Amino acid sequence: xxxxxKIIADKRMEVDLRKSLIPIKQLEQSVLFERxxxxxxxxxxxxxxxxxxxxxxxxxxxxVINQNLNVFDVAKGYENAGVCGMSVLTDGxxxxxxxxxxxxxxxSCNLPLLRKEFIIDEYQLLEARAYGADVILLIAAILxxxxxxxxxxxxxxxxxxxxxxxxxxxxxxxxxxxSLDMLGVNNRNLKTFxxxxxxxxxxxxxxxxxxxxxxxxGISNIEAIKELQPYGYKGFLIGxxxxxxxxxxxxxxxFIKKLEK
Length: 261
Fold this sequence. Notes:
alpha/beta, globular, 12 helices, eight-stranded parallel beta barrel, two-stranded antiparallel sheet
């Protein structure tokens, strides 16, 4: 069983438990459920920098990244830095996140918020909506083509943007459909955890221009972004780079300043 299989097995149990504790009706009655969402895809299309900054305490590949920064300050800092959107990890067991992190981020900024999660059930999309997310992530590696269609169409009915993440050509081919807004290429090999920007370059020409192209993982410097922009990438997801510092917002601010030069 690789790490991804393990995460998904745990996720199924977790979602079943949550469903039994909080009925859908209750999620739909949340104050945030009817709020007007902000499109990350539109922000990225109109941006010169395209930074999506992440809040992440730890990860299976890196263990602890930073347990000290609170989400409220990080979200505020990212917004002041001028990022296009913020990614909030809500997985508890492997990444140390929670849905409350999403709620806190929503209370402290007006950025488009991505719920970064292993989505395997429509229920999680209702949660995302109820807790203030604007965007959901679907991971092609863990979903069938039917799942992707079902979840992305359901997300659109909730006015949520959809970012679909692929790792290779096979995943990309099964995933391309009109109910997606953004296609994210993850440069990290999920089996070996090796990272290579070549993955983004190789897959870029196979992604139709109707979708906003996003590159994820292994982007820790300005050079990487400059290298990928000619391939049509408009979004760059940066997590560990900012979170490794004492002040994620300030770190993002300096990064964007350099990028704009």
